[in-house]
């Protein structure tokens, strides 16, 4: 969550799917070599994170101890003969439009601004007394945020000036307010007093190091794929196996030795090859989710957006829901081909949904941060709870329309060219009905003291006209149905918009659109089923669906952040949010499918391993978050470099754990 709040500082006082196939064991050394390579890469990833910690997080600067992470020091100097009120407004506030001209001379910025058109209320920063005499300034120090640009408004009896500026972390700035030759003209000049910190340097270095690691891994895989290297490894493997057999208890009467010919004979028939791209996609989403949940180095773009818009943190959960829908399609089809009844599959889905819901409710509930779980303030919605609901609804829809076999479809039928869509029209009809319910409730439901169809953050947004309308109908339904004490108490809108009402981003109305997200993933699975091994057809249809969803998003948002019919909003899980993220998911899936399953340029490592054990990794990272080695006391808690190091190491731990569990063939399924 971004530190958008600006705090006054007085001198001397500081403020602060499918079933898994068994692996065949043989004496071929290629498989162990892959495991050793992945283990080696995991160790290097730890070293990379440690290297990031060594990056200097600050430079010698004036007043370095005054400010914290994502803050800067601002001294306002008033030479006027009247006291001055300083107010501020974040550029990230809802529907901000700034129009200004600026003249920059080295480190001095003289700004002349036209009045901005704003949809948020200015927040008081403090009062600067009048100057004690001509040419003698009165000075007051403030702490300002650095994550986004801000607009400073200086008022006396009238508005004196408005200054827009983007401060940099740990910088020291001076704002001089004085009269020019004409006493009726006020000049406001911003001066940079000391060198600032490049807070993005640690993450840039980490990115370059991990990119280099990926390149080295690719080169190593290419070398290991050479015939000469393969033959060498095979000969070494045979010699090692021979030595092991000689030194073992060959005379034990019950011992049998597998001959060399046994390893090359065809094994029993196995089910169709599991698509590694799906597990890789799931694992990529999960790894990013773990990283951002652990803090993401405390960078604002690794935290959820305050209201409208997208950050990296807003991408991963919808992608996880999407790939869950894809896995549902493949697993249900496989189970029906094996002869399982639809009723038995439905009962298993119900039981799995109940388990997911209870794990989310009772094991990883955020209320544990406040002490023992209290039923009076138990948060009912949550990530696993939403997954459980979406899973149950989408499985039920698929069981109603899925075909037992896709091998005998009439090729000459008029619907054959669009069979992956038209064969399942009843399920699509149900989804359309659900979306109609969402649209009607969102835009037509009367909400006390709020305009119909309100999608804003409340608080100081919309000029503070609707302070108790956070989330509109979505927030109202949650508060009425679940109660204020049983939903999320500290939504991301509190930072910038000062909203005080509880609001849950995993609430009731948003769950309808999460069903749509999972169902779009189910549609991707239908494409994989109907065009099995037809790679060009699969990728072409993924791209067509991505284009269609992208066009829908463009229409809904008018290609803007706040001006559209339905803005992109993670808190609301708005319709445009779902179509946009599904568009991105299909594009990413095409890329991973092509590189992993078609060309096999990439094995999917290391993301493949957490993707195979997703429930264990997600629950484990939540439950063990506060334990070593996932968290420890930092020497400098105001350093992005230290936070980034800790979060990278914690995430790498879970990748390593999932790899080791994969080697032992241990998977947690519910």
From TrEMBL:
Instruction: Kindly state which keywords UniProt assigns to this record, in alphabetical order.
Output: Membrane, Transmembrane, Transmembrane helix
Query: Which segments cross the bilayer?
Result: 38-55, 200-226, 283-301, 316-337, 349-368, 388-409, 421-445, 508-529, 538-556, 576-595, 607-624, 644-661
The record places domain Heparan-alpha-glucosaminide N-acetyltransferase catalytic at: 274-397
Instruction: Locate the region Disordered.
Output: 1-24
Spell out the protein name for this chain. Answer: Heparan-alpha-glucosaminide N-acetyltransferase catalytic domain-containing protein
Which residue ranges have biased composition labelled Basic residues?
A: 1-12
Q: Which organism is it from?
A: Oncorhynchus tshawytscha
Q: Which Pfam families match?
A: HGSNAT_cat
